[in-house]
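Example (one chain per record):
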Amino acid sequence: MYAWPASEVPALPGSGRDLRIHDTSTNGRVTLEPGPVARIYVCGITPYDATHMGHAATYNAFDLVQRVWLDTKRQVQYVQNVTDVDDPLLERARRDGVDWTGLAERETALFREDMTALRMLPPQHYIGAVEAIPGIVPLVERLRDAGAAYELDGDIYFSVAADPHFGEVSRLDAEAMRLLSAERGGDPDRPGKKNPLDPVLWLAARPGEPSWDGGTLGRGRPGWHIECVAIALDHLGMGFDVQGGGSDLAFPHHEMGASHAQALTGEHPFARTYVHAGMVALNGEKMSKSKGNLVFVSTLRREGVDPAAIRLALLAHHYRSDWEWTDEVLQEAEERLARWRAAVSRPDGPAAEGLLEEIREALADDLDAPAALAAVDRWAALQDSTGGTDEGAPGVVSRAVDALLGVAL
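Predicted structure:
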């Protein structure tokens, strides 16, 4: 599967700061110190309704991580999946009377278009669950043969007891895990399971549903968590720098994925740091496909909204915060974009070297994009009130905003 074209990242003078970021697994801030190649895995969409503002906010957060790393002169190895076969996708296809593969292809294509418009840097490896199945099957077989998985009516389940580190990602108690498992695709009440939290690794073929050759597992399709594990291990290996996604993925998805990988390899940790973005609401409720309260990037684009304004609306909120999308949020972003473009359109302006360092420091401080925006606002206001004599300043500001915030002025 192919990703989307990369926008050029302008070169900036000097070098950026190492990123200090909140780690879910320790509930504290850590300094990321990757080697020359920083490794990141971000969980992708299930392509049946893309791309809403919740998606956009999540991928914006991890785009900033990449940009901070690139500014430190590191290379970035970025991997993202597409869950192009799963229950929600199949249910939507049945509801709409369409072929599930066509639905997945259409929504994935739309997602690519939205990411391109928003200037999100693409992953080097963009892998669909279906194309990963040949690599998933042997992992499930290994877990089963090692006693870390078991069969139940033809389905294969992972035993969370097989990983002594289970629970260290989300730090939740058993009851909270059970409730979230029921809400987020698990089946804690299924009779016969060794532990209510045990997740499915391989789902035996069901009538009317797609299935693949699973070797000794029989025909079926993979569970949700093992998909990302197979892709991450294949392209990044154990101990990569950041596992990222929305806050609703901390449990069960990232918790289970870590345990799968750790049971497979005997190594710990799967990822060094777990980073999660907040949720976006509309009309007082979390924006979600199940509620149908979605604002789509593609809809706004069709209505003539500048993608740079959409991106500024996302950047105006700290990535870990939960916030609400409103018309006022977008209007403020459009007004900010107009002010910034007017400021950099002049032939000279106030000195900008200090501004570049302010943006770098803000982003290094747990991706504090609102503080970075405020710094640019101050420079633009000074430009508007007093101007300046530095002929290179507007260009420096324009390149800094593009390289570090992904906004083209």
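Caption: The chain has two domains: 20-277, 307-405.
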